[in-house]
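job 3f2a | input accepted
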Amino acid sequence: MKTTVNLSKKGNSIMLVFEEGFSTYSIAVPLPYAVSFFLRGLLVSLAALEQNKDLQKKIEQKEGMKAEILEEIRKAFVLYENVLKEIGR
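job 3f2a | predicted structure (89 res):
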């Protein structure tokens, strides 16, 4: 299945287009909801990354990069959590 995401012509929504074989499905998602949904997904992904023990072990093998990478993940996590609180989680 091929999926594309485009901004609508008026710019007030995101168009999700799913194509499979000869069938095409389109969904228009109002921009505030799309941004909120995206941020929630990103927040969950960042939390999962931070808690993933296997990933942390792999990062530890790259000694000098470990602290820097984990710090960036934590900063992004805090930033997106604050954004979600602002938009009324």
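job 3f2a | Residues 2-86 form one domain.
job 3f2a | closed
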